[in-house]
Amino acid sequence: MNARPDLDIAVLGAISPIQLSVIIPFLNEMEVLPACHERLRRVLKTLRLSYEIVFVDDGSSDGSAEYLQALLREERGIKLVRLSRNFGKEAAMTAGIEHAAGAAVIMLDADLQDPPEAIPAMVRAWKEGADVVSMRRRSRAGESVLKRLSAYAYYRLLSRLSKAAIPPDTGDFRLMSRRAVTALLQLPERCRYMKGLYAWVGMPTRIIDYDREPRAAGVTKWSYLALFRLAMEGITSFSTAPLRWATGLGAAAALGGAVFGAAIIFKTLMFGDDVAGYPSLMAMMTFMGGVQLITIGLLGEYVGKTYMESKQRPVYLVRDVQHSGAAGMAASGHGRDAACS
């Protein structure tokens, strides 16, 4: 029996004539888009599958969209989804997934750090029955030591905190079957941390190791502050452990204050020592004030997330969708109900 009946259905056209969709969200990547398209096109031509490339423009202003519009007139199997403004990568990926028609969907960054040449191995794993093929970074070329260490620590912390089994060292580079995509699109969150949502869906998963390449051209759009915000989004979206930590910190502070007070009373009664009033008071007030502010900040993160979800704004808005018609062939929606912004 075929491990991928959905592929057979796609071939027959019952779902879609497109067997593979490759989604490329981008923001101001004109320097690298031509090389990205050329490398990807060469790989897709070897697969003997009908395909489409879904480019999602997350508010670019450097001529990226104009380049792709010209490409639409020259090549089949290309779709350009332009968002009304910059909504962020998580929203752009959601837009791409919702506009993809393939029996399998691959997420690929435009900067070529994730090599398109790994796609055939992903497709083989999918044909063998995997609904999700996650690509795990064996090495991270072109990244600073600080970024590698912080990523290593963060992914392991998130894996321990989250009830969803988020594989360490995996990013957005992955393949999903139509069944996994359908399940993913049922999740109603507006504040979308995609790596966590992929894991929450579950489904039979295959992990493939690969070596991440340096950025082919241009500069990263991810500052350390943006990465920190994304990390906080991941933790607060998939774990309430920080709230329990705040409770434990408050209890420890209260216990420490009680022990300190008892020690002062004991020394005064037993040895007649003077109580160091102002310094001791200031130290305790500063410590307790810090604990309270940390706790309030954590509560604010969760309350703010609840507030953003309650407004029910769309994850993104689409300016327009353009496509070149029929799917590409190898040689042989509307705006989703925009992110937390």
Report on this model:
The protein has helices at 5-12, 33-44, 64-72, 89-99, 119-127, 145-161, 178-184, 194-201, 224-238, 241-271, 277-310, and strands spanning 20-26, 50-57, 78-83, 104-107, 132-140, 170-177, 205-212, 318-323, 328-329. It starts with a helix and ends in a 12-residue tail after the last strand. Helix 2 links the parallel strand 1 (20-26) and strand 2. The protein has two domains: 5-221 and 314-329, Spore Coat Polysaccharide Biosynthesis Protein SpsA, Chain A (Alpha-Beta Complex), CATH 3.90.550.10; 241-310. Strands 1, 2, 3, 4, 5, 6, 7, 8 and 9 form a nine-stranded mixed β-sheet that branches. It is α/β, with parallel strands linked by helices and 341 residues long. It is 47% helix and 17% strand.
Tell me the CATH superfamily of the largest domain: Spore Coat Polysaccharide Biosynthesis Protein SpsA, Chain A
SSE ordering:
HEHEHEHEHEHEHHEHHHEE
- According to CATH, the fold-level topology of the largest domain is Spore Coat Polysaccharide Biosynthesis Protein SpsA, Chain A
User: Taking Cα atoms only, what radius of gyration do you get, to the nearest Å?
Assistant: 25 Å
**SS summary, helix count:** 11
Residues in helix, %: 40-55%
The separation of the N and C termini measures 47 Å
Task: Give the tally of β-strands.
Answer: 9
For the record, the CATH architecture of the largest domain stands as: Alpha-Beta Complex
Poorly predicted runs:
none
